[in-house]
Amino acid sequence: MTPEEICARLLYRDGLMLVLDKPAGLAVHRGPKGGESFEDFFGALRFGLPRSPSLAHRLDKDTSGCLVLGRHRKALEKLMLLFKQGRIDKTYWAVVEGGPAQMQGLIDLPLGRLDATRGWWMKVDPQGQPSQTRWQVLGRGHDATGAPISWLALKPLTGRTHQLRVHCAALDFPIFGDPIYGSGRFGDEILHLHARAIAIPISKNKPPVEVEACIPPHMRALLTACGWTEQIDETVRLTRRRREDAQLRVEAEVKVKQA
Length: 259
Hints:
alpha+beta
């Protein structure tokens, strides 16, 4: 990934944090086996600061969308505390196999490790950690084979590993393309889970910073089958351009004052 490519994924920037649009299929940081990671390219995001920004939280390798970075130590500590306290509002969009009969609901199922020898795979476990996910049906449709699918908005109220994936699978509507918890009938399909929006109360006297990430190419076909339209993301792009223009004006004014 070139500096230009990672900068093109910048959704939000201020003096404390950055929000990036993470691509699906790329780990956020190097695992024990090594390999390329999204974090390898953060050096291009210093924007005048002496150190690269750092991850304030994690997304699964196969999940796309909003990823928050702290630009310096104090900002990173504050962001990590907000995530730990559950004060950051996160909304994911997913395409699931089948779907719930109701239009909205709450999944309240504790989660624990599936097997200590198999990495971070999880399972519903009565002795596990409390885990809650709110869900809402945004649309319904059919995939290319004619099988029913649903477009869901998912809000994790807790932050367990693989929480959304395990919760959906436990209620018999696994996320489309999930290689671990799904049905396994989609071959090389990419996981259809996207961190669509995030709201971060970073400043005490200001409203939360709200950021949205446009839909990645691999999810557009099935979302369209469920009623999603490109016009929905055009609104997101327009809001982002306005925010970027405002940020550029602020930076220009700072430079003038410093001169």
